[in-house]
Design brief:
Blueprint lengths: L18 H8 L6 H21 L1 E5 L2 E5 L1 H4 L4 H7 L2 H22 L3 H13 L2 H17 L4 H12 L2 H12 L1 H4 L5 H16 L9 H18 L5 H21 L22 H16 L1 H7 L3 H12 L1 H19 L16 H30 L11 E5 L8 E5 L1
Antiparallel strand pairs: 1-2, 3-4
Helix pairs in contact: 1-16, 2-4, 2-5, 2-15, 2-16, 2-17, 5-12, 5-14, 6-9, 7-8, 8-17, 9-12, 11-12, 12-14, 13-14, 17-18
Length: about 400
């Protein structure tokens, strides 16, 4: 399993000054930095999207969830930019299949390989569950409105579904390594045809929770096998965009690629055919960006930022909703609803105010990151001879990664 940055030998210092140059110098020369860049952008896209379209409206003594996409449907293109889960599954499939192949080459069995990957993925989850169990219990005991408790805990724990699906696909990696992406795509097509064309049961849509995300995951496996070229990226982008446009314009699918509270149909919960074809277009863009990203990641500052984001990917993902809610709760101390924070998302004024709140959400996330990043990176190893470099692994569902830290 490749390292994000190597642990330098004791007594040596990487050439150059500054953190960025040290991280750049410590990175193995054969590492595909574009993969890490795509993963970082996918995670940050989800975070930015949630912060932009998740509103907690203060309604008397109750906080209820709302979305500007319901009142301002012309904002749907925002979801096209920030709903980046398909790229994360593409990268995850690529890295998992490469990791499993490397493990087999080393003689490592499936069990130890899977235990290591799942452990890194779920290590930071315990802290989120512990905190929100305490917060939920405290809210109930204090007599908080039941709808408020439900809204807050649902937002905080909603990222867990993603981890469960990703863990399931990771466990199935040896089985799906050579699955053609057209097979799960056909499953999604037939599920939607039965549900929407023939009035089938709504529960059938949950089959797409696995089949839908298996499409980009198996594309990632094809990437590992060297089957996806720049031309493949162009084909995926064109075909995926055309199919998605047709499904939205003539198939009755919503234009938004995320769920909108109160709407009868969601493209994401569970995934629909439109969400999957949209994901194909995103995967095409990702493949087309590989070479430009590799060139960009040669800049030490850009690479250091991506490396740090990858080392904290799950912390960022799991705590970004908590940061939003913490800022919202603290804002209630002002005594009156604050625009863009507690008010209904029903106009351009709200959009402008919400954009102004984004740096505050980022500050709240930085506090969460400082407090809980150790849960993701693992404990520090100590030696009797003072400090020494140790490896810290990222559970970001991607490559095994290590960073240089001082114990």
């Amino acid at each position: 399993m490749r390292e994000l940055v190597r642990t330098p030998k004791r007594g040596t210092r990487p050439p150059g000054g500054g953190l960025a140059r040290r991280v750049d110098a410590a990175t193995p020369p054969d590492r595909d930095r574009a993969v890490d860049a795509l993963r970082a952008f996918a995670i940050l896209g989800v975070v930015g999207g949630h912060w932009l379209v998740t509103a907690l409206v203060s309604d008397g003594g109750t906080l209820r969830a709302a979305s500007p996409l319901k009142e301002l449907p012309w904002l749907a293109p925002i979801s096209w930019i920030f709903q980046t889960l398909a790229v994360f599954f593409l990268v995850g499939g690529h890295v998992a299949t490469a990791s499993y192949a490397a493990a087999r080459a080393r003689g490592t069995g499936y069990g130890p390989w899977l235990t290591a990957r799942i452990g890194r993925l779920f290590r930071p989850v315990a802290a989120v569950l512990a905190l929100w169990t305490a917060v939920g219990a405290g809210l109930v005991l204090s007599g908080a409105d039941a709808d408020t408790v439900h809204t807050l805990t649902k937002l905080a724990l909603s990222p867990m579904w993603f981890l469960l699906v990703f863990a399931g696909l990771t466990a199935a990696t040896p089985l799906v390594t050579r699955v053609n992406p057209l097979w799960p795509l056909a499953v999604v097509l037939h599920v939607d045809l039965i549900r929407f064309g023939f009035g089938g049961p709504a529960w059938l849509g949950w089959v797409n929770l696995a089949a839908g995300w298996l499409v980009p995951y198996t594309l990632g496996a094809a990437w590992t096998r060297g089957e996806l070229t720049r031309r493949s990226g162009g084909v995926l982008l064109a075909a995926g965009a055309a199919a998605t446009a047709g499904l939205v314009l003539w198939g009755g699918y919503p234009a938004s690629m995320v769920g909108v509270p109160g709407e009868p149909m969601s493209n994401l919960n569970p995934p629909t055919l439109a969400a999957v074809t949209f994901g194909l277009a995103q995967c095409g863009v990702a493949l087309l960006l590989r070479e430009p990203l590799r060139r960009w990641m040669r800049a030490p500052a850009a690479w250091a930022a991506v490396a740090v984001a990858n080392l904290s990917a799950m912390t960022i993902f799991l705590w970004h909703q908590t940061a939003l809610m913490a800022v919202t709760a603290l804002g209630l101390l002002a005594g009156a609803p604050l625009p863009g924070l507690h008010t209904a998302p029903d106009g351009l004024g709200w959009v402008a105010a919400r954009l102004a709140w984004l740096p505050v959400f980022a500050l709240g996330l930085a506090v969460c990151w400082t407090a809980f990043r150790g849960c993701e990176q693992g404990g520090r190893k100590k030696s009797g001879g003072g400090s020494r470099p140790v490896r810290v692994h990222t559970p970001a569902g991607g490559a095994g990664a290590g960073a240089v830290r001082r114990a």
